[in-house]
Amino acid sequence: MSKELDCFLGLCYRAQEILIDFIKEDCDYLFFNAFSFSNFGEGLSPIEQIFYAQYMINYALTNPQYMDFEVQEHIRVGKKEYIADFVVYSRTDRIKGRFKLKHLKRPLIIELDGKEFHSSKEQMNYDYERENALKLAGYDVIRFTGSQVYNNPQKCIDDTFEYVYKAEAK
Prior knowledge:
alpha+beta, Endonuclease, Chain A, four-stranded mixed β-sheet, 4 strands, 49% helix
């Protein structure tokens, strides 16, 4: 079995479903052949896989609306290091018929909170402290629950794009 197939089969069912629906309905054959599953979803939780799958489909279909999107980004704030689920540093803007990469003044961290890991009182306190530290360090933060991502990943991506395209850029 190929590494790409192994990676695809290692994704959660919902992420596989999103990608298969894309392939059946809207897939550009050349894009799909160029798209590598070799590291897709590696090290991500199921809701992160779902969000990332939906993002990749949106990137393929809505180009040139593009966000510079980092996955599992390590961020140091003082003596603490945090791992952000996703971080957006820049976007493309259409200016006089051309596309220009514009960096966000405040990078956007996208956090996905699954019930299993983010519902205890202790974890919620940690999440709030972490979010405050990241905001004080110059980041914006947007959060989605696991249920939001699982039930309507497209809305989560739409909300993220809306946030990014309303954010100030340099």
